Amino acid sequence: MADQGGSQHGIARTSRVRTDEQRQRDLDRIAKYRDLEGQMRALADAGDYARPDLLALTSRLLRLNPEYYTIWNARRRCLISGSFSRPSPGSSCLTACSSTSRTATTAASSTTSSSSSSAATPPAPASQTAGTTGTTTENPAAAEQNTSQPQPDPADAEARDLATIQSELSFTIPLLLESPKCYWIWSYRQWILEQAISRLAPSRARRVWEEELGLASKMLGKDRRNFHAWGYRRHLVARLESPDLAGSSLTEPEFAYTDKMIATDLSNFSAWHRRSRLIPRLLEERGADDEARRAFFDYELTQIGEALNVGPEDQSLWYYHQFLISSLTTPATHPAAAMTSSLSQQERVEYLSREIAEIKELLDDYGDVKLVYEALFEYTRALCEMEGREATVGERGDLERWLGRLRKLDPMRRGRWEDLRRECGLSAE
Amino acid sequence: MSQTFDQLPEELQLATSAHVKYIQSLDTRKDEYDYWLTEHLRLNGLYWGLTALHLLGRPDALPRAETIDFVLSCQHDSGGFGAAPGHDAHLLSTVSAVQILATVDAFDDLETRGKGKARVGEYIANLQNRETGTFAGDEWGEEDTRFLYGALNALSLLGLLDLVDVDKAVSHVAACANFDGGYGVSPGAESHAGQIFTCVAALTIAGRQDLIDKERLGRWLSERQIAGGGLNGRPEKKEDVCYSWWVLSSLEMIGKTHWIDRDQLVGFILRCQDPERGGIADRPGDMVDVWHTVFGLTGLSLLKYPGLQPVDEVYCMPKSTTARVLGR
């Protein structure tokens, strides 16, 4: 159905004919890969997930192919059976947690963290040599070895779990940097973080999660629009705010983060979107009164107006502008209405009229930018609707003229312009 | 419309036989490293290839018996399917398995030689989060509107939609809606064309299109077409053939396909073909793959490109199949 993994993106087409040498190289790589896979399956089929060599095999395979979800699952089983100090029913999986009330692992793991710690720590053999992976200098291989030491004391057990969690987090970083759109890596990392909640003292777990925000920022620094990273960030914030992590609101710093991202790149629709979502909570938490809300709204309108003055071709900016305007035009249930709920009908009309006038001024410099006409058309209709009246003769003339410009400047969407014309009862050109 | 296409230069004709050969060759490439690296997508790949062949009017180009055998060999006792034998069960491969079996009319084989429809339905139903209504991809708990759509798609094909709480699923989709009319991967996420397809199709299967703000959504979707004719998936991003499906099918479901320029999109998709060796790429001149091949063809089918079989905009399967299975 829908999974983009494994598809080719942006790779230039080359001749598909390989030289004998290239073909041989492929065959060698296949043999090596399949051999690893065969070893891994043999151990997994035997069901002994506590074996550290099985964990080491998953590392090697995942470095070759981070899209191989079955191997990520095997790795989770390895940690549950071996590396972690105790198997936790909440840490395994949905089917193990419950068959009646289905909840996500995130919820399940937080309720089962008090489960018996008397489950014997499996005496994981410490004999595994990192040398078998052929990557002795790499931190994760070494960490795998460290974390498999038997540690019976509870404090030691927690230290060992922390080491395992940190080792897993560092193992996935290079993979994530190489495949920043790989769903499986993000979801594995999220699972590891949940382990921190169910296995570590709250303050330690919280530190792990807080540090993770740094990773989200790093990934967004590399690709400002990566929706995996934005989603991950939202998840981190929601969990950091939750009672599971003894949290409190992060709305202010998150809002400041959108400021920073927008200052770096005005065109970042993802950041504008995030901002739009944070505003209602921000105003609520600031205890903003009517005046403060209105001042906030004015500030946002000014900011976006200035941005549009230099970049009226940018859809991202117009979407945010529409978001602000919709707080004037839509019922109070709209999330944006948090800014404008105290405004009277007359004030709303004044705001919208002023915006329309300012956008008209954009036409002096940007007479051939279709988004300007589109905004004028939409907002003028919204104004009539708000006032519960038909368009005046002058407005009808404007609407017809703007629609004519839209048809000319943007013939790709002529079907839409034609629908709009009919809907508004405007004359055909 | 067909007159317009006849006037296209020769390089903009659909290379039908090359595409058929390309898809047929996919399972013979066992000496290529990529063949093994993409095994976790094998069942999805079979669905993509099979659907493409059906749209190209060559439903028999893959051997039916072997197709069914392979699909059934991926099934677990739980009822779920893995991507290939030895791979864990996952919702994405389970949906592909159901779609393939529906397309080759082999639900009977699932009953007699597989674990049966009921077990598949149970596997999928168990992945629903009964509190929020959304679905996980597997027992490890990743949630996404892709999985919600996949579950409704497969369950409705199996006639087992009543195993899940459809109303809750619908509420979850509604919670993913944004002010711009689009939908994201989860509540709070920005609108994304792929996710819009999954949400709009899920609402369509549930009979709840009334929840969609069609004007705003249609506007957002139509703005995805950019210079050159291709579609992007989000504002200010590059175009990519796969959005010829995600964006276009969504427009089709809300009755606004005419809000973009059909001829220019047809031209863009055809320029992404490899006319000699077959297959379609994300953009002109790039490497082809079966994923972009099927979504290029489903896009062309929605655009009524001459000679292609009609595709169902909700299920991404041949219309003849959904008509037979769903009786519509």
From TrEMBL, chain A:
* Region of interest called Disordered, as start-end residue ranges on this chain: 1-25, 108-158
Question: A Gene Ontology MF term for this entry?
Answer: Rab geranylgeranyltransferase activity
Give one GO biological process term.
prenylation
Low complexity bias: start-end ranges? 108-143
Name the catalysed reactions.
Answer: geranylgeranyl diphosphate + L-cysteinyl-[protein] = S-geranylgeranyl-L-cysteinyl-[protein] + diphosphate
Question: Which residues are in coiled coils?
Answer: none
Q: Which UniProt keywords apply?
A: Prenyltransferase, Repeat, Transferase
Q: Which InterPro entries match?
A: Prenyl_trans_a
Enzyme's top EC category: transferase
Q: What is its EC number?
A: 2.5.1.60
UniProt keyword Repeat present: yes
GO CC, one annotated term: Rab-protein geranylgeranyltransferase complex
| Biological role stated in the UniProt entry | Catalyzes the transfer of a geranyl-geranyl moiety from geranyl-geranyl pyrophosphate to cysteines occuring in specific C-terminal amino acid sequences.
UniProt record similarity statement: Belongs to the protein prenyltransferase subunit alpha family.
- This protein is called Geranylgeranyl transferase type-2 subunit alpha
Native organism is Staphylotrichum tortipilum
UniProtKB/TrEMBL annotation, chain B:
Q: Record keywords: Repeat included?
A: yes
Residue span(s) of domain Prenyltransferase alpha-alpha toroid? 14-317
Task: Look up keyword Zinc and say if it applies.
Answer: yes
Alphabetically ordered keywords of this record: Metal-binding, Prenyltransferase, Repeat, Transferase, Zinc
Q: Which reaction does this chain catalyze?
A: geranylgeranyl diphosphate + L-cysteinyl-[protein] = S-geranylgeranyl-L-cysteinyl-[protein] + diphosphate
Single GO cellular component term: Rab-protein geranylgeranyltransferase complex
In the UniProt record, the signal sequence range is none
Q: Do you know which Pfam families this protein is assigned to?
A: Prenyltrans (PF00432)
GO MF terms held by the record: metal ion binding; Rab geranylgeranyltransferase activity
- Give the E.C. number(s): 2.5.1.60
Query: Which cofactors?
Result: Zn(2+)
Name the enzyme group at the top EC level: transferase
Q: How is the cofactor bound?
A: Binds 1 zinc ion per subunit.
Concerning PANTHER family, the annotation shows:
GERANYLGERANYL TRANSFERASE TYPE BETA SUBUNIT (PTHR11774), GERANYLGERANYL TRANSFERASE TYPE-2 SUBUNIT BETA (PTHR11774:SF11)
Q: What does this protein do?
A: Catalyzes the transfer of a geranylgeranyl moiety from geranylgeranyl diphosphate to both cysteines of proteins with the C-terminal sequence -XXCC, -XCXC and -CCXX.
Q: Tell me the protein family, please.
A: Belongs to the protein prenyltransferase subunit beta family.
What is this protein identified as? Answer: Geranylgeranyl transferase type-2 subunit beta
Naturally occurring in which organism (per UniProt): Staphylotrichum tortipilum
